[in-house]
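Page 37, continued from 36.
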Protein backbone atom coordinates (compact mmCIF):
# COMPACT_ATOMS: atom_id res chain seq x y z
CA UNK A 1 0.00 0.00 0.00
CA UNK A 2 2.82 2.40 0.88
CA UNK A 3 4.14 2.11 -2.68
CA UNK A 4 0.82 3.35 -4.04
CA UNK A 5 0.70 6.58 -2.05
CA UNK A 6 2.57 8.81 -4.55
CA UNK A 7 0.32 7.57 -7.34
CA UNK A 8 -2.79 8.18 -5.25
CA UNK A 9 -1.55 11.70 -4.43
CA UNK A 10 -1.12 12.43 -8.16
CA UNK A 11 -4.54 10.97 -8.91
CA UNK A 12 -6.08 13.05 -6.12
CA UNK A 13 -4.52 16.23 -7.55
CA UNK A 14 -5.89 15.40 -10.99
CA UNK A 15 -9.37 14.62 -9.61
CA UNK A 16 -9.39 17.87 -7.66
CA UNK A 17 -8.27 19.90 -10.70
CA UNK A 18 -11.04 18.30 -12.78
CA UNK A 19 -13.58 19.25 -10.12
CA UNK A 20 -12.43 22.86 -10.54
CA UNK A 21 -12.97 22.59 -14.30
CA UNK A 22 -9.50 21.61 -15.51
CA UNK A 23 -8.96 19.55 -18.63
CA UNK A 24 -6.20 17.01 -18.06
CA UNK A 25 -4.20 15.89 -21.08
CA UNK A 26 -2.30 12.68 -20.49
CA UNK A 27 0.26 11.39 -23.01
CA UNK A 28 0.97 14.87 -24.32
CA UNK A 29 4.62 15.64 -24.96
CA UNK A 30 5.62 19.30 -24.62
CA UNK A 31 7.50 20.07 -27.82
CA UNK A 32 8.20 23.71 -27.05
CA UNK A 33 7.06 26.62 -24.97
CA UNK A 34 5.35 29.60 -26.58
CA UNK A 35 6.67 32.98 -25.56
CA UNK A 36 5.39 36.42 -26.44
CA UNK A 37 7.37 39.54 -25.62
CA UNK A 38 9.70 37.61 -23.36
CA UNK A 39 6.91 35.94 -21.40
CA UNK A 40 5.98 32.25 -21.55
CA UNK A 41 2.27 32.06 -22.39
CA UNK A 42 1.76 28.46 -23.42
CA UNK A 43 3.11 25.28 -24.91
CA UNK A 44 2.96 23.32 -28.12
CA UNK A 45 2.31 19.66 -27.33
CA UNK A 46 2.03 16.44 -29.28
CA UNK A 47 -0.73 14.01 -28.46
CA UNK A 48 1.28 10.79 -28.42
CA UNK A 49 -1.83 8.61 -28.89
CA UNK A 50 -3.36 10.35 -31.91
CA UNK A 51 -0.34 12.22 -33.27
CA UNK A 52 -2.12 15.59 -33.16
CA UNK A 53 -0.35 18.83 -32.32
CA UNK A 54 -2.12 20.80 -29.59
CA UNK A 55 -1.45 24.40 -28.57
CA UNK A 56 -2.22 25.35 -24.99
CA UNK A 57 -2.36 28.99 -23.94
CA UNK A 58 -2.37 30.01 -20.31
CA UNK A 59 -1.82 32.95 -17.97
CA UNK A 60 0.61 30.88 -15.92
CA UNK A 61 2.84 28.09 -17.16
CA UNK A 62 4.53 25.79 -14.65
CA UNK A 63 7.49 23.80 -15.87
CA UNK A 64 7.39 20.69 -13.66
CA UNK A 65 9.42 18.43 -15.94
CA UNK A 66 11.93 17.39 -13.30
CA UNK A 67 15.23 16.37 -14.87
CA UNK A 68 13.90 17.51 -18.26
CA UNK A 69 12.92 21.02 -17.07
CA UNK A 70 16.10 22.56 -18.52
CA UNK A 71 15.45 21.06 -21.95
CA UNK A 72 11.91 22.45 -21.98
CA UNK A 73 13.01 25.87 -20.72
CA UNK A 74 15.60 26.03 -23.51
CA UNK A 75 12.79 25.87 -26.12
CA UNK A 76 11.86 29.39 -24.95
CA UNK A 77 15.53 30.45 -24.90
CA UNK A 78 15.48 30.34 -21.12
CA UNK A 79 18.44 29.00 -19.24
CA UNK A 80 17.65 26.74 -16.29
CA UNK A 81 20.52 24.87 -14.70
CA UNK A 82 19.49 21.27 -14.05
CA UNK A 83 21.98 18.62 -12.93
CA UNK A 84 20.41 15.28 -13.89
CA UNK A 85 21.81 12.35 -11.95
CA UNK A 86 21.53 8.63 -12.48
CA UNK A 87 21.33 6.35 -9.50
CA UNK A 88 21.40 2.71 -8.56
CA UNK A 89 19.42 1.24 -5.69
CA UNK A 90 20.14 -2.04 -4.00
CA UNK A 91 17.30 -4.28 -2.80
CA UNK A 92 18.25 -6.70 -0.08
CA UNK A 93 16.19 -9.77 0.63
CA UNK A 94 15.12 -8.93 4.13
CA UNK A 95 13.61 -6.04 6.00
CA UNK A 96 16.45 -4.66 8.11
CA UNK A 97 14.33 -1.96 9.76
CA UNK A 98 10.73 -0.86 10.04
CA UNK A 99 10.99 2.80 9.20
CA UNK A 100 12.57 4.90 6.48
CA UNK A 101 16.00 6.24 7.39
CA UNK A 102 16.85 9.29 5.34
CA UNK A 103 19.59 11.88 5.61
CA UNK A 104 18.71 15.45 4.67
CA UNK A 105 21.79 16.54 2.81
CA UNK A 106 22.80 17.69 -0.62
CA UNK A 107 22.35 14.95 -3.24
CA UNK A 108 25.14 12.42 -3.20
CA UNK A 109 25.66 8.68 -2.86
CA UNK A 110 23.74 6.68 -0.28
CA UNK A 111 21.26 8.69 1.71
CA UNK A 112 18.25 6.47 2.27
CA UNK A 113 17.07 3.02 3.40
CA UNK A 114 13.44 2.17 2.69
CA UNK A 115 11.72 -0.95 4.04
CA UNK A 116 9.19 -2.21 1.48
CA UNK A 117 7.09 -5.22 2.47
CA UNK A 118 9.62 -8.03 3.05
CA UNK A 119 12.69 -6.30 1.57
CA UNK A 120 14.73 -3.15 2.13
CA UNK A 121 15.98 -0.81 -0.57
CA UNK A 122 19.22 1.07 -0.03
CA UNK A 123 20.20 3.95 -2.22
CA UNK A 124 20.91 5.63 -4.15
CA UNK A 125 24.10 6.37 -5.97
CA UNK A 126 24.07 9.78 -7.62
CA UNK A 127 26.19 10.28 -10.70
CA UNK A 128 25.67 13.36 -12.84
CA UNK A 129 24.83 12.72 -16.49
CA UNK A 130 24.64 15.28 -19.31
CA UNK A 131 21.29 14.06 -20.67
CA UNK A 132 18.49 12.37 -18.65
CA UNK A 133 17.45 10.38 -21.75
CA UNK A 134 20.86 8.99 -22.69
CA UNK A 135 23.18 7.45 -20.15
CA UNK A 136 25.02 4.18 -19.79
CA UNK A 137 24.21 1.44 -17.29
CA UNK A 138 27.51 -0.16 -16.36
CA UNK A 139 27.51 -3.98 -16.27
CA UNK A 140 28.54 -4.07 -12.60
CA UNK A 141 25.28 -2.34 -11.69
CA UNK A 142 23.23 -5.29 -12.96
CA UNK A 143 24.95 -7.89 -10.80
C1 LIG B 1 13.95 4.61 -8.32
C2 LIG B 1 13.69 5.92 -7.61
C3 LIG B 1 13.31 5.93 -6.28
C4 LIG B 1 13.08 7.12 -5.61
N1 LIG B 1 12.70 7.07 -4.30
C5 LIG B 1 12.44 8.21 -3.65
C6 LIG B 1 11.98 8.19 -2.30
O1 LIG B 1 11.81 7.14 -1.70
N2 LIG B 1 11.73 9.37 -1.69
C7 LIG B 1 11.90 10.57 -2.34
O2 LIG B 1 11.64 11.61 -1.75
N3 LIG B 1 12.32 10.61 -3.61
C8 LIG B 1 12.59 9.49 -4.28
N4 LIG B 1 13.00 9.53 -5.58
C9 LIG B 1 13.19 10.83 -6.20
C10 LIG B 1 11.86 11.40 -6.67
O3 LIG B 1 11.20 10.41 -7.46
C11 LIG B 1 12.12 12.64 -7.50
O4 LIG B 1 12.90 13.56 -6.75
C12 LIG B 1 10.80 13.29 -7.87
O5 LIG B 1 10.00 12.40 -8.59
C13 LIG B 1 11.05 14.53 -8.71
O6 LIG B 1 9.78 15.09 -8.95
P1 LIG B 1 9.54 16.08 -10.11
O7 LIG B 1 8.07 16.35 -10.13
O8 LIG B 1 10.48 17.23 -10.01
O9 LIG B 1 9.97 15.30 -11.44
P2 LIG B 1 9.41 13.95 -12.05
O10 LIG B 1 8.69 13.12 -11.04
O11 LIG B 1 10.56 13.31 -12.79
O12 LIG B 1 8.31 14.46 -13.07
C14 LIG B 1 8.68 15.08 -14.29
C15 LIG B 1 7.63 14.67 -15.30
O13 LIG B 1 7.81 15.46 -16.47
C16 LIG B 1 7.53 14.61 -17.57
N5 LIG B 1 8.14 15.19 -18.78
C17 LIG B 1 9.46 15.31 -19.08
N6 LIG B 1 9.61 15.89 -20.29
C18 LIG B 1 8.36 16.14 -20.74
C19 LIG B 1 7.85 16.72 -21.95
N7 LIG B 1 8.65 17.18 -22.94
N8 LIG B 1 6.51 16.82 -22.09
C20 LIG B 1 5.67 16.38 -21.10
N9 LIG B 1 6.08 15.82 -19.96
C21 LIG B 1 7.41 15.70 -19.79
C22 LIG B 1 8.13 13.27 -17.19
O14 LIG B 1 7.57 12.24 -17.98
C23 LIG B 1 7.75 13.20 -15.72
O15 LIG B 1 6.48 12.60 -15.57
C24 LIG B 1 13.24 8.34 -6.28
C25 LIG B 1 13.60 8.36 -7.63
C26 LIG B 1 13.83 7.16 -8.29
C27 LIG B 1 14.24 7.19 -9.77
Amino acid sequence: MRLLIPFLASEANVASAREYGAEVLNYHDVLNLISVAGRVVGAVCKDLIHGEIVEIHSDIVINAAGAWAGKIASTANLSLQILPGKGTMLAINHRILNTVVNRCKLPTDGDIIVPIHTVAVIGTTDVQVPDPDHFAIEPWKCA
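Helices lie at 5-19, 69-74. Flag for discussion at group meeting. The mean pLDDT is 91.
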